[in-house]
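dumping the sequnces here before i forget
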Amino acid sequence: MTTLIYDGTFEGLLTAVFDVYAHKLDVVKLHQGEWLEGALFDEKMQVITDETRAGRVLKALKLKLSTLGVQRLYAAHLAEIPGEDNNLLGFIRYAIDTDENIEEDYGNRYVMRVSEMVRMVRREKHRMEAFIRFQKLRDGSFYAAIEPDFNVLPLLIKHFRSRYADMKWMIYDLRRKYGIYYDLHDTQFITLDFAENSRQADIVAAYTEDEGMYQNLWKNYFKSVNITSRKNTKLHVRHIPKRYWKHLTEKI
Amino acid sequence: MDADRITEKLNILADAAKYDVSCSSSGSKRKNENKGLGNASNGICHSYTEDGRCVSLLKILLTNHCIFDCAYCVSRKSNDIKRAAFTVQEVVDLTINFYRRNYIEGLFLSSGIFKDADFTMERLVRVAKKLRLEHNFHGYIHLKSIPGASDELMNEAGLYADRLSVNLEMPTEAGLKLLAPDKSHQEMIKPMGYLKNAIIKHTEEKKLFKKAPIFAPAGQSTQVIIGATPENDNQILHSANYFYKNFKLKRVYYSGYVPVLEDSRLPALNTSVPMVRENRLYQADWLMRNYGFHVSEIVNNHQPHLDLDIDPKLSWAIRNMQEFPIDVNRADLKIILRVPGIGVLSAQKIVSARKFGKLNWEHLKRMGVSVNRAKYFITCQSKEFERRDLTGNAIKQFILATSHSKYIKNVHTQLNLF
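..and the predicted 3d for all of it:
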């Protein structure tokens, strides 16, 4: 068995696939991380991410899969679930090695696993579309902080651009330390340097005057629509797992 | 805006609107145009109340002043409660500001009837019109169509709203007469008929002219209150089916009656909300709309009530054991859909995947089939299958013994009720 060490990017993954075929490797295992000298693995190989090689693999994949199928593969990669790289690799190899399109072969374990990963990422994306809470800043722009389970920010751009086309907004992933910013024309990825000890008061001072009022109105509304005689905490928590509460205005 | 006053109004008018269970924001295709605000397409639940219901729309009454005296309604004339009314501008500001903060998908605006139907409807339409024309708002708008309002107003409402609804409230005419003597069943149905025809007309025009305006793209819905009057599930579901078929409704909502008022015509105040029954009605409704079941397969004169302890699909299956077992590697999609434990998505996965090779239990499990239930009704590529010739009743006992109903607490009290 050969262990392929790659950088964890989608291009890196595709380059690894290229190497598998170029070196006619059979049983392989992917490992994310840096190349270290030493005898951790019996046989190991470094994958050097290469745009051209990755492009060739992608082209081959596009011939075998539908456009949607390629998108789903990318979404599964974004999940960044530890140890799942090998299932992605397995899926790609199965797709390339088979004449017909295998996207719907749910009896195959790689296809099924990728489908599960896609479902997990899509669900997280959908949750973010629902749970993001913007706060209006003094300059008229809107800011939201999130900590999603998976790296779904790139998947959110389309939704928020078409919805909030007439306002500037920023969504920041605190866990992965980057955000997207829309300036009425384009969206771009950005990183922010948060001052080490920014005080709560500073943050509140950045809001518009009526921000507090609307947050309170929303909290009030949330309380008013509840029907106490139908209380069902289990269902409530299943819909909004507790880890999302700290960024939800109505649950703070 | 005066924060205290608006807060008080919001509390009163959201509280009065919450018994309207519809909160759906899906089914529309409204796009964001001219760099405006918002769009409406798939529907998103932005939050969930502590009773587990979705919060998707800002659901409020324009006012809870009402000239009617319907027994089941908190806002009825004779009820001594605080009254309030929003101005058109206040509703618009709330909607826009909540929407920009991503709290909601849009607005669901209903109202008590003040003065008369036209006067009330005109105000509702004015809110929607202002949002669309002055604020370039393309989010979701659900308006109540007020029975008795003129066709012109209904038409205008359809041009600005995504969905319109009239609540039938009681599943039968007799029930309505008993509890809402001021309302007439015929008059409530009238706007539905008008809107159905208008929607069909606009859809036809849209096919011919791309520029034709969209008209209530998310269609119509209605709500019936369950458990306030003695109708059985057979009557309720047949009446729902009638409205799906004849008025092309998108949804019928079933709202378990929450005792809010003391009235000799109604269940007593300490009666519990019939939540299991409500849940079973929704499951049955789903079977009618998405699983190809005919209403009379689910309930009929011999089977006037839905089982409370098992879901209606399992209930149908054990009454029809002659249809099973089926082979998932060969059966048609519409047959697979009838198997307890197999949902729409897993049924589609099965049909796609079996082209590549025969499926076994492990495959089915991974596809999301609830094998614990399905195993009594199917065979697959495996030597292991249910060989005992079990009666429907035995299967029911096996399944009940291995599953925990989320309502188990409620079931006992509920069973005594019906």
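Chain A is about 45% helix and 15% strand.
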